[in-house]
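Help!! Second protein's tokens look totally different from the first
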Amino acid sequence: MKHVALTLALGAALAAACATATVQLPPTDRLANVPVPDRELAESLLDAEQVVAGRLVQVAEAEQYERPGELVFGIAGAKAPAARAFQGELSVDSTLVGPAARTLHITFFAARGAKVPRQDSTALWVLHRRTLWRLKECAERQAITSTGCIADQGLALDSDSDVRPLADWPHLKALIATLGLDARRR
């Protein structure tokens, strides 16, 4: 009786392993199919939660995600201006990757003085699921107590290249198909 149960369990485990082994190639194998000049964009697409075409209908500073103070100290004491955080609302026209939605809320960061996407900007948006630390609240709490930092989960832009012109639609669509991400469209 033990052998029958063990055989059934092994058979189920083997079937499950075979089923998952044929689902998708590892990301590095999929990148091999992409031309070298498109690899950085392809890596960003592999990491994307959603890729949409839409219009930024609202933009506001999100001070809760900003590090307090004007300067941040880096390697060898170099000073850099603290990044400003922004939240925006996207009105989605079309979805290439991820679940279809009419409206998405996004977060992005920009160094002081850097170009920030303006309200009514229409573009392709490559959005990543990220942990968004409430740095302002963190700093205030740590001045009083040693409690941990609070964080939110949200869609964010990782860099300027995550905002692309609408004319890139066919190129992104082809890359998404090459990477096998079109199956992630829900």
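Here's the second one for comparison:
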Amino acid sequence: MKEKRSFLGGLKKWIGSSPAETIVLGPEDRLRLSGKSLRVACREHAFVVELGKQTLHVCPDQPLGRNGSGQARDFLLFDPGLHGAEISQSLRLKPGHTLAIDHREPSQKLVFSRPKHAFRRHLQISHNGDSLDFKDPISELGTYLSLMDVPDGQRPLDTQRRRRAQRIREIFGGPIEALPTSEALELLQEVNALLVSDPYRRKDAMGNAGGLLELPVNLTPVIIGDLHGQVDNLLKILLENAFLETLERGESALVFLGDAVHPEEKGELGSMESSVLIMDLILKLKRQFPSNVFFLIGNHDSFSPDVMKGGVAQSLEWEKHIRLLRGEEYVRQMSLFYRHSPLFVLSKHFLACHAGPPRSEVSIETLVEARQFPELVHQLTWNRIKSKSWPMGYTKGDVKRMRKSLGIEDERPFIVAHYPQEASGSVWLNVGEIPNHHIIYSARPYEVGLFTRVKGEMVAQVYPAEKLTFALETVNDQTI
């Protein structure tokens, strides 16, 4: 008796098999993949996959400043019509992993300009280190594979990043290192003068920009959590996606959720050199793009003796360090920066602060005048969600009350930073079983997470970290 096999069972068996021979595509090759599986040598190559009217680029992700010889690299999969032109979504394929184009993955719907054409195929790509397996069992539909036509020795993503690296150096105005004292003081004074009339912030009763930032809908947010002195993570963000290009065109806004300073790594808690450099970078970005860079205050962005980590009074160490390095006036100006920076951001697409929601009803007017209410400032910068280790933390009811008092619907994401939920990872969604309540942490030495908006939806994105401070200085301008 013949064994009956369902279509799905046959598909699973077919997907589990691997092609025996590795082929090398030539420049003129355009191979039909439908109903077949192909193992293709992938070193240094970028590919074009045609999924009906949807085109997909599959490109090696070359870390900046490394030649990558003998090292298997990640591949990025993206829609070439969207990637680089605007802030978009891509897929990452790591060595030893498999990626399937699947309509059941919500984030994939944001990757493609023609998702229906992409999802009609059953495309699966496996990364074997020195080869890629392309599989599509649906023979009735035309899926084609070819090499990307690029100049010899050039990689599309590498070329983009080298251009961005050059622009970052131009914005910073020199090597990526701490500024001389006089230049650093002048920079901070200029930024403080800008903050008095910061855009998208109503004036408070004192005539200063209030505690609430109301971000307009035409600015795509790039929301960055705690950095804690991880300079390379900030540089990585500027090198990725179209974050820098859209910032320069005035189409996006960098929104830092505070805690830029004070390292979190063991053995580094009292070291403040990276904190000096990361503040120089943020202040340079604010001066360069005053209407598109905003820094919300966190609990570490202060000189408070209450800021402790591992027995180290980090804020006191920070104050002492910059006083010795840059003088009393710099300390005074940094205090003004903390005083005049916003505490809460509100947009049609999200709301965010550093730590947690107010513990009582709050109005737009109260957030504007937040500096007049020390307890409110403390809650926005210090609070964390209730847990066994933090029983006095905020709850689902506090988030609900905040939304109701501000007239915010439950579907609008509320994003905070401040307190990582686990020892690893950068993004936690629907934390505390609170729908649309997310936590972002951008200070991991191995990855950097952020939130942004793609096709009208707020999404989390995570990028692998790189050692970039030195790499940006060694990129050969003639290769850009």
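Reply: Different proteins will give different token patterns, so don't panic. Residues 176-479 form a domain with the Purple Acid Phosphatase; chain A, domain 2 fold (CATH 3.60.21.10).
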